[in-house]
Automatic annotation (TrEMBL), chain A:
It comes from Nepenthes gracilis. InterPro entries: ABC/ECF_trnsptr_transmembrane. This is Protein ABCI12, chloroplastic. Pfam families: CbiQ. GO terms for cellular component: chloroplast; plasma membrane. The chain crosses the membrane at residues 128-146, 158-176, 262-284. It is a multi-pass membrane protein. It is found in: Membrane. It comes from the Eukaryota.
From TrEMBL, chain B:
SUPFAM superfamilies: P-loop containing nucleoside triphosphate hydrolases (SSF52540). Gene3D superfamilies: P-loop containing nucleotide triphosphate hydrolases (3.40.50.300). One of its GO terms (molecular function) is ATP binding. It comes from the Eukaryota. GO terms for cellular component: chloroplast envelope; membrane. GO terms for biological process: transmembrane transport. Transmembrane segments: none annotated. PROSITE patterns: ABC_TRANSPORTER_1, ABC_TRANSPORTER_2. Residues 28-253 form the ABC transporter domain. The keyword Electron transport does not apply. It comes from Nepenthes gracilis (Slender pitcher plant). Keywords: ATP-binding, Nucleotide-binding, Transport. This is ABC transporter domain-containing protein.
Length: 375, 257
């Protein structure tokens, strides 16, 4: 009986796609706009669902008084949040970008892992110039290796983050002026001549703006943490955008293989990691799709009370969780159908390491038995 | 509605048009299948009611019906994923089930690793595994995708990889659940062709294809129409097509009146 309706879907199969293409959100909104316009036109006598006006804020002419618009409007925020979630082109955490293939894509993931580790450890205990050099190097590498819109987006976000960190720390690290804790008695008491100030113009206090002051200590703390933040975030996102998660997993497996001898369940760990990596995309898609679903209902946020808005968000989170659990169930069922019984010792995983890493495995021996890669 | 119940009564009692012994010529036989679940409130709710289905060996049959009529449930009962409350099932072995959403089925990072995933339970040599994977990918028309990372594939390609995974296990029966729901027209045709080709090349494989898209009927050797947990009609695709079109027309008349 419903097959008649389904023909409509056949005409526009995109509506049935699990992953909504990004242009769809606009289309959908347009659709909804038209729909609600025509509805409003055809049912003019429909009473408003709710009258949210606060009585004391409405004067005799029924107009709101000025002060009400100064109250922060949660409705506007909710709509904006959902809209930005639904419209996000890529997942918030840097995802693998398969094309254009850059030089970084072809680097062995094991080397990338080592570099990543180095970039995390290096700036912590090195000279200021070294730190700044690494930051500059990473920025240039990103600009050179990644497509323009990607690096603009990435660098912009990371610079914003470390910039905020820098400003906050620079101002606050040595913020309270040490008026009480001066230990050396003033020269007036001791009768000795004052200690001559530095010939090189050394100043502990670098800048003073009213109550705010920037000191050498503050500057050093701020620059260290800003550089560290930048280096860690940017190197990680560079690595993630140019390496598939599976490549990283197999690189990790290569490093962990020796641990097998001391009884670490490497096979289980890596298989679990692989499965969870496959799952991440599903989770992000789900978050985006449910947001799109709520948006397309055209909820009139301004008519909702704060509690109702919060309720919508709780519903949103619940929906995401229940959908994710159903995905997990389906995946488990599919794996069971294919003969997996939750035991990675009895279930061989073929062709994993060689094709995922892209280079022949070093631990491969010529004897044909070991050619089947046991994970 | 009376019309359809009449038809169902005749369809459920009558054996299908081939009247040989079922176990020989039919790859799939389900007799008087019922499936009930108990809801959280403690009520019993029957999803399948006295379904009978016969699918001849070596053919591609389609299972049609509106959303929520119990197609997936019937398929899962046939696959052995659910136990029927009542009735008996016979399906040739080995059998394989391909899910609606390819993201659920394709779990490994690369195409060849995923196609080989189902082979992990057997004790095969690497050459044997490689041979089977290559053959299965050939059958679905993706021989050059052996080393591709899975996330660079389109929906239809993932679906074909999932089918290849089933074929690599050399299964006799393919149970395919609404594979084309998430696909656009191009991918949809590709997947149907892949199934048809693999049936033709292996000879002995039977496929039961669940769909709600009428236009896919033309690729089938036979079709079964379900409604509300019951098999309403089965027969050759053109008859089913006409039946559904008639129903749609009468439904439209009802709405317009
Ligand atoms: N585990 C379950 N719990 C509750 N209801 C279910 C369950 N599985 C299926 N159903 C219900 O059974 C009906 C048939 O579902 P399904 O077989 O998925 O239909 P179809 O695949 O034809 O769209 C639906 O109404 C669905 O809500
Ligand atoms: Mg279904």
């Amino acid at each position: 009986m419903y097959l008649g309706f389904l023909n409509f879907f056949n005409a526009s199969p995109h509506f049935l796609r699990g992953q909504c293409p990004e242009y769809l959100s606009d289309e959908l909104q347009l659709c909804n706009g038209l729909l609600s316009c025509s509805l409003r036109k055809s049912i003019p006598s429909l009473p408003p669902l709710r009258t949210p006006e606060i009585q004391c804020a409405v004067d005799s002419e029924g107009k709101r008084r000025g002060w009400k618009k100064w109250i922060p409007n949660i409705a506007f925020g909710a709509d904006k949040v959902l809209r930005s979630i639904a419209g996000a082109t890529s997942s918030p955490i840097c995802q693998f970008i398969p094309s254009p293939t850059t030089f970084l894509h072809s680097v062995d993931p094991r080397i990338k892992l080592v570099w990543l580790l180095a970039f995390i450890l290096l700036p912590a205990r090195s000279h200021f110039y070294m730190r700044f050099g690494i930051v500059l190097y990473l920025a240039l590498l990103s600009v050179w290796a990644l497509p323009t819109n990607v690096w603009m987006d990435q660098l912009g976000r990371v610079i914003l983050l470390s910039g905020i960190l820098f400003i906050i720390l620079a101002l606050s690290a040595d913020g309270a002026p040490p008026t009480v804790s001066i230990r050396t008695p003033p020269p007036a008491i001791t009768g000795l001549p004052n200690i001559p100030s530095s010939f090189h113009g050394y100043k502990y206090l670098i800048l003073k703006l009213g109550p705010l002051q920037i000191t050498r200590k503050g500057l050093s703390v701020a620059s260290t943490s800003a550089c560290l933040t930048f280096t860690i975030f940017q190197s990680a996102s560079l690595c993630l955008t140019t390496t598939t998660p599976e490549q990283l997993a197999s690189a990790l497996r290569w490093f962990m293989l020796p641990l097998k001898h001391i009884g670490v369940p490497v096979a289980e760990i890596i298989l679990t990691l692989l499965l969870s990596l496959r799952f991440i995309n599903l989770v992000f898609d789900e978050i985006r799709n449910v947001a799109l679903g709520i948006l397309s209902r055209r909820i009139n946020w301004e008519q909702l009370t704060t509690m109702e808005t919060i309720d919508v968000f709780i519903q949103y989170v619940r929906r995401i969780f229940s959908n994710i659990f159903s995905h997990a169930e389906q995946i488990a069922q599919a794996m069971i159908v294919r003969g997996f019984r939750g035991d990675s010792k009895n279930h061989k995983i073929h062709f994993l390491s060689d094709s995922a890493v892209g280079v022949p495995d070093i631990d491969k021996k010529p004897n044909p038995d070991s050619l089947v890669q046991y994970i | 509605m009376n019309y359809s119940t009449l038809l169902r009564a005749s369809a459920a009692v009558l054996p299908p048009h081939f009247s040989q012994s079922p176990s020989e010529n039919y790859a799939i036989t389900g007799r008087n299948l019922s499936f009930c679940i108990t809801t959280k409130q403690g009520e019993r709710f029957s999803i399948l009611r006295n379904c009978s289905i016969w699918i001849p060996s070596g053919q591609l049959w389609m299972l049609l019906g509106p959303n929520g009529c119990g197609k997936s449930t019937l398929l899962k009962v046939l696959a052995g994923l659910l136990n029927p409350t009542d009735g008996s099932v016979y399906v040739k072995k080995p059998k394989s089930f391909v899910f609606q959403n390819p993201d659920h089925q394709v779990v490994m990072p690369t195409v060849e690793a995923d196609v080989a995933f189902g082979l992990g339970k057997y004790d095969l040599s690497r050459e044997e595994v490689k041979y089977r994977v290559t053959k299965a990918l050939d059958a679905v028309g993706m021989p050059e995708y052996l080393h591709r990372p899975v996330q660079t594939l389109s929906g239809g390609q993932k679906q074909r990889v999932a089918i290849a995974g089933a074929l690599a296990e050399a299964c006799k029966v393919l149970l395919l659940d609404e594979l084309t729901t998430f696909l656009d027209e191009n991918d949809q045709l590709g997947v149907i062709r892949a199934v048809k080709n693999s049936l033709a090349s292996t000879g002995d494989v039977t496929a039961l294809w669940v769909t709600h898209r009428l236009e896919e009927l033309e690729h089938a050797d036979g079709a079964v129409y379900m409604e509300d947990g019951k098999v309403v009609m089965e027969g050759d695709p053109s008859t089913i097509f006409k039946f559904i079109k008639d129903q749609q027309a009468s439904y439209m008349d009802q709405i317009n009146c």
